Amino acid sequence: MSEKTRLELTWIGKDKRPRLEPRILIEDKALSYRAEASTPLQGDLLADERPPSFHDNLLIQGDNLLALKALESKYAGEVKCVFIDPPYNTGSAFTHYDDGLEHSLWLTMMRDRLEIIRNLLADEGSLWITIDDNEAHYLKVLCDEVFGRRNFVANIVWQKRTSRENRAAVGSAHDHLLIYAKCGAVDWKSTRQLLPANNAGYANPDNDPRGEWRSIPFSAQGHRPNQMYKIKTASGDFVDPPKGRCWGATEPVYLEYLKDNRVYFPNGGAGKPRIKQFRGEEKGLVPMTWWDAEFAGDNEAAKKEILALFPDDEPFGTPKPEQLLERVIHIATRPGDLVLDSFAGSGTTGAVAHKMGRRWIMVELGEHCHTHIVPRLRKVIDGEDQGGISKAVNWQGGGGFRYLRLAPSLLKKDQWGNWVINPAYNAEMLAEAMCKHMGFTYAPSQTHYWMHGHSSETDFIYVTTGSLSHDQLRLIGEEVGSERSLLICCKAFMADAEAFPNLTLKKIPRAILGKCEWDHDDYSFSIDLLAETPDDEPLEDQ
């Protein structure tokens, strides 16, 4: 189906998109945390796989759509794995709206976030989303729109509970885990990691000098003419491949295996050939789409993990077990890669990524960002958290994180209804914010007061709330020189803007007034996301 004729979801308010302000992030150093210098690092990791430094990990409190927008300029194309556990839209999240509006708001909320997540993903990055049956199939179509159908990898079915739900017509025992790869499913196959192979079944019954081995089948699915031949067993009989299959290699390759004493015939020598695999030769296992509770934990295990960390608190409703996150992060990343979770919840993603030596970013709006996630991460960093996957990875502690908050809106209306620079902004904050708005990298110079950022090696930006005169601009222009250019964002200037060929002059806030929506702090589930209906007619139930 062509791009022009493909089927798409439609819903109330789909055409209305927020014009997001790219906020800056401000560190709350009282909540940031790093390990003491003497704290040991993870025992099983090599030197280049140890926990990333304090500056690499970010915990951001604030609206996650604004936070994603704030990250976009610096982290576009840098995130290797995004794991999100969004609201499932079961009816409790939208108590003020009827079902039709619930569904439309949920789709809009997800679409807006997914589009920025796509920009943040590295070329070989992947997105993993947990969801239940209520919205899973709509979400699949929505993700097809945002990422493209060829980028869909799999729908993993995760066994979230093992107990029977007797109150339901049909008890819910699973969630979905949708996977999308930015580079497409085919190309992502070469970058994803295999699961550790099972080490059971090794022995050395024939005293092979190469050590313990186990046998693996020597057959493959399908019919390949050059892999269809008879093999003589150790008992002297000739055998064909199993029905519907061919041998696992051509005959010359098989003869090499035989010469190398790698062929094993079971059933006293009368069975079909198998190949010896020696310990250490395992290639790993391809992930499957069925993850049972034994393999990836369940909700009950997750609640026990949270209760072990916070025994006096009411547990989170549907936390995810560390084992589930360990499987995701192992498959999708390598040590040192960046993992993002913009629906942080209880902080499991960051805790597991940290223990596995990955860099991480988490975003959470609620107060539990500092009441629960911060204490949990501190226990991880101090090595006190020995639950979850800690023992499996021999976690001993180390690393750190920075706690960031979204800055307030750069512009606010004054008492007369005019947009002005927010008084909460100091000179440094203003310079950083203007760099974001004007497409510059914030990097203030230690030697040139007029270098607040750059867009290239020769193009710079200077931000000031002062009013610049002709003589001031002339002196700045002379210092900039003919080989460089400078964008000046100021409150006012008293000069001919065309008089200085290497300077471009812009007034604040006029230069940015039309760039975005100002002083809008909450993009969670606002009724304003819906498109307006003509003539104020009531919305019909969809």
Automatic annotation (TrEMBL):
<dbReference type="InterPro" id="IPR002295">
    <property type="entry name" value="N4/N6-MTase_EcoPI_Mod-like"/>
</dbReference>
<dbReference type="Pfam" id="PF01555">
    <property type="entry name" value="N6_N4_Mtase"/>
</dbReference>
<protein>
    <recommendedName>
        <fullName>site-specific DNA-methyltransferase (adenine-specific)</fullName>
        <ecNumber>2.1.1.72</ecNumber>
    </recommendedName>
</protein>
<keyword id="KW-0808">Transferase</keyword>
<keyword id="KW-0949">S-adenosyl-L-methionine</keyword>
<dbReference type="GO" id="GO:0008168">
    <property type="term" value="F:methyltransferase activity"/>
</dbReference>
<keyword id="KW-0489">Methyltransferase</keyword>
<dbReference type="GO" id="GO:0032259">
    <property type="term" value="P:methylation"/>
</dbReference>
<feature type="domain" description="DNA methylase N-4/N-6">
    <location>
        <begin position="79"/>
        <end position="371"/>
    </location>
</feature>
<dbReference type="InterPro" id="IPR029063">
    <property type="entry name" value="SAM-dependent_MTases_sf"/>
</dbReference>
<comment type="similarity">
    <text>Belongs to the N(4)/N(6)-methyltransferase family.</text>
</comment>
<dbReference type="InterPro" id="IPR002941">
    <property type="entry name" value="DNA_methylase_N4/N6"/>
</dbReference>
